[in-house]
Specification:
lysosome; alpha+beta; four-stranded antiparallel beta sheet; five-stranded antiparallel beta sheet; about 850 residues
Length: about 850
């Protein structure tokens, strides 16, 4: 353990800092880092280098080269820079490389050097050029801040949703500030800059002069400034060699350190871990690295070669041409276990486990000491926590073995933390491998989350490793394996050296019916890459027609889309394709396409019936469907025509169509309607009143009500209205007029073809019992009882029923007998029934 702490360096009395090697870099740089623009992404992200920046006149062979490496130095991409002069590089939170040019255009590249998009920072930046730029991160996304040649700042807090803000002007600023940085306070991005001994804070509304509290006197210039990873703290390097550290709000001073070096540092970054009370700043010069904080003495390291600092959540990454190291504060759990002469429970448990492996009785002594103090659960937890913060697998195993050993002597220690730590460390060790090159610490991993880590593995096209992690952690398929396979498939379709059939087959064999995978999304990516046939083959595996059809329409494969929509049975989908086809094809081709698809034709007809009647007529004409064409003209005659001549003409066209369809009944009925319309028009002209659009029956009734009995009879003869129907019409009309004398004459004009019971019913309907009785006596024997009951003559109805010896009629009469009034009649019927049963 004493040897283990050899690289620990104390900063005051409260904290130790250690620096260990992550990777031995094997990237074979031909130039020093100081001759390159450098950008390294946080959370163990990639490194971008632009060689030979700033040369405006150079032969083609000497163009700058943009190279992207993993954190371990493994090349990921290399491309010749053919665009404008570069000012700054930076990585977004999604690990996209933002390249800020001198003209204010920002080019965005993927991890593998693939161009994504570009955007401009505005005309003012274009006119005044870019002097300096910063890429920064906020809770909203990744932002870009620009310092122009006019010494004005332009800022966008989120490049994904570009909204440019021109910051207020700094009064009296005639030259570039000595240093500046971006800060995020209260969800708003600010710019802090130094002009001589003065500091200015720019927000969207105003420029404010600020003064750090407790700053040592004699400062004439600020040479460097740094904001912490979480934007909570600020460090200022002055020309007097002092480093002021305080809150980012500039309201509180934490400490001030005199480094006795007045030369401006190359870089200055914060180095602190979450929940740590100790705050430290790392300052780098050409060959010296210093860690300073609230302590009289700092920690100094010698740099053998040009180095670059990358601030992280819990430390600082330092890489050079040959090595990549990590500098951080020793976590509390590790410090308590490994510091010299530690008697912490975790330290005793680790010693007990080592003695146990040596089969020494000292193991029992250490264990008893922990148990007597009741600190065994704490000891186990310390070992588990310390294992998470160790980089080397051997030390992780040693600590986890100690934790497992201590757990054996506890009855109710929950295993979740131990199991979870084992899983997390297996994942971390896998991604820290040199060939993967993502040196995440345990704290960074927890902050990043497993889903983001999987996304980053997918970005690096490390699909097998991502799938293994998902399966190992037993993540839900939709969140894990399915999502990764979908990304793999989208990458696969970009491999243009493989045939469409082979790619489609490989994707289907790998994906199958994996839940959560959309073949339509993969097909869309293939179409975006210009591989239309591959997209169509992939859509064959998509089970949801609603996902197939829109993409087929986008690919101009409308007829195939129509077939898929019809197969789905979804009428809304078919209508969508039909309307698209209608706009895409000429009228003739559209109709020919419909003729080959009966279901689509039927649906389109339904649509035309409500929306496009003329198109419906054209469809019927093209199909020689005379029956439907005749029906169309009949409907059109009433819907569109108001003049009687136009209506009759439309009906004549309909009649001709019905004759062509060999439907003589419909043709004759149409001709009769034409005759009726002409007659009604004549009646309106001669008699006045309204006759048009009445039926034959209503026309007859209207004539009778108007007293035109002869005309009504003539109309009935012309249209062959049967006598029974005519008598009913005339009887009903005369009753409505209450012309009882005319009804009596009518009843005696000849024998009634409808009998005389209707006369009784009509009179009673009009509440005229007197007239009803006249006709009740004329009703035939079979309806006599019913007629007598209608006029209320129950006694006579009973006599007739008994005379007829009809059980049904007697029952009918009984149902009309009420109380004492008809009691005698009811008894009479009952006696008649009894006699009939005796016989």
């Amino acid at each position: 353990m004493d040897c283990y702490t050899a690289n620990w360096n104390p900063l005051g009395d409260s904290a130790f800092y250690r620096k260990y090697e992550l990777y031995s870099m094997d990237w074979d740089l031909k130039e020093e880092l100081r001759d390159c623009l450098v950008a390294a992404a946080p959370y163990g992200g990639p490194i971008a280098l632009l060689r030979n920046p700033g040369r405006k006149e150079k032969p083609a062979s000497a163009r700058p080269v943009l190279e992207i490496y993993s954190a371990s130095g493994v090349p990921l991409a290399s491309l010749l820079w053919k665009s404008g002069p570069m000012v700054s590089l930076g990585w977004s939170a999604e690990e996209e490389l933002l390249c800020v040019q001198e003209d204010g255009v920002v080019l965005v590249y993927g991890l593998h050097g693939d161009f994504r998009r570009h955007f401009s920072m505005g005309n003012e930046v274009l006119q005044n050029r870019v002097l300096d730029a910063r890429i920064f991160h906020t809770e909203f996304g990744s932002g870009v801040a620009i310092l122009t040649g006019a010494h004005r700042f332009t800022l966008s807090a989120n490049v994904g949703d570009l909204k440019l803000r021109r910051m207020p002007e700094v009064p009296g600023l005639q030259s570039a500030p000595s240093c500046w940085t971006t800060m995020c306070q209260d969800r708003v991005a600010h710019i802090l800059l130094a002009v001589g001994p003065d500091l200015y804070l720019l927000d969207h509304a105003a420029c404010s002069a600020v003064t750090p509290p407790g700053l040592a006197p004699g400062v004439s210039s600020f040479l460097q400034m740094a904001v912490s990873f979480t934007y909570r703290h600020l460090a200022l390097f002055t020309d007097t060699g002092y480093i002021w550290m305080g809150t980012a709000s500039l309201k509180e001073k934490l400490c001030e350190f005199n480094c006795n070096i007045r030369a401006p540092p190359k870089q200055m970054v914060w180095c602190s871990r979450p929940r740590s009370k100790e705050r430290a700043v790392v300052v780098a010069w050409e060959r010296r690295l210093m860690v300073v904080g609230d302590a009289p003495e700092g920690i100094q390291f010698v740099l053998d070669e040009d180095s670059y600092l990358v601030p992280e959540l819990d430390g600082v990454r330092i890489f050079s041409r040959s090595t990549h190291e990590f500098l951080h504060e020793v976590p509390v759990a590790s410090e308590e276990i490994f510091k010299i002469a530690s008697m912490a429970p975790g330290a005793l448990l680790l010693e007990a486990q080592k003695e146990y492996e040596k089969e020494s009785q000292k193991a029992d002594e250490y264990l008893r000491e922990i148990q007597e103090l009741g600190q065994l659960p704490q000891a186990v937890q310390q070992c588990i926590e310390a294992a998470g913060h160790e980089h080397w697998p051997d030390m992780q195993k040693s600590l986890l073995r100690a934790a497992s050993f201590g757990k054996c002597f506890l009855d109710r220690f929950p295993p979740d933390s131990f199991v979870r730590m084992c899983q997390d460390l297996r994942v971390l060790n896998a991604i820290r491998d040199y060939h993967i090159g993502i040196p995440l610490t345990y704290s960074q991993y927890k902050q990043l989350t497993i889903q983001v880590l999987l996304d980053r593995l997918v970005l690096r096209r490390l699909y097998p490793l991502a799938i293994q992690i998902c399966e190992y952690l037993r993540l839900p398929e939709v969140q894990g394996v399915s999502r990764i396979l979908a990304h793999w498939a989208c990458y696969k379709v970009q491999q243009k050296d493989v045939s469409d059939e082979d790619v489609a087959r490989a994707i289907n064999q790998k994906l199958g019916d994996t839940p959560g995978v959309s073949y339509s999304d993969i097909a869309a990516r293939a179409y975006g890459c210009g591989r239309t046939e591959l997209a169509i083959k992939l859509l064959e595996y998509e089970p949801r027609s609603g996902e197939q059809v829109p993409l087929l329409l986008k690919m101009k494969r409308s007829k195939l889309a129509l077939s898929k929509a019809i197969e789905s049975g979804d009428t809304d989908l078919v209508f969508t394709v039909l309307l698209h086809l209608k706009n895409e094809l000429n009228r003739g081709d559209f109709f020919m396409t419909l003729r080959n698809q009966p279901m689509a034709l039927s649906l389109y007809r339904q649509f035309c019936k409500h929306q496009e009647l003329e198109t419906l007529k054209d469809l019927y004409n093209q199909d020689d469907n005379h029956q439907e064409l005749g029906s169309f003209h009949v409907r059109a005659s009433y819907a569109a025509e108001e003049r009687i001549e136009g209506r009759v003409a439309a009906l004549q066209t309909a009649a001709d169509a019905f004759y062509k369809a060999k439907n003589e009944f419909a043709a004759k009925a149409t001709e009769d309607q034409m005759r009726l319309l002409r007659l009604q028009r004549r009646l309106e002209d001669e008699l006045g009143g309204r006759f048009l659009d009445l039926s034959v029956h209503d026309t007859v009734t209207t004539l009778i009500l108007s007293g035109q009995n002869k005309r009504a009879e003539q109309l009935a003869r012309d249209f062959r209205i049967p006598d029974k129907r005519l008598w009913w019409l005339k009887l009903t009309a005369l009753a409505d007029l209450e012309d009882w004398e005319e009804i009596e004459k009518f009843s005696k004009s000849k024998k009634s073809p409808i009998g005389y019971l209707p006369f009784v019913e009509i009179c009673m309907k009009q509440h005229n019992k007197y007239e009803a009785k006249k006709y009740a006596s004329r009703v035939g024997p079979e309806q006599k009882v019913k007629a007598l009951l209608l006029v209320g003559d129950v006694a006579q109805a009973a006599d007739v029923a008994i005379e007829h010896r009809n059980e049904a009629e007697m029952s009918l009469v009984l149902s009309h007998c009420t109380g004492a009034t008809d009691g005698a009649t009811a008894d009479k019927i009952q006696r008649a029934r009894a006699q009939a049963q005796k016989k």
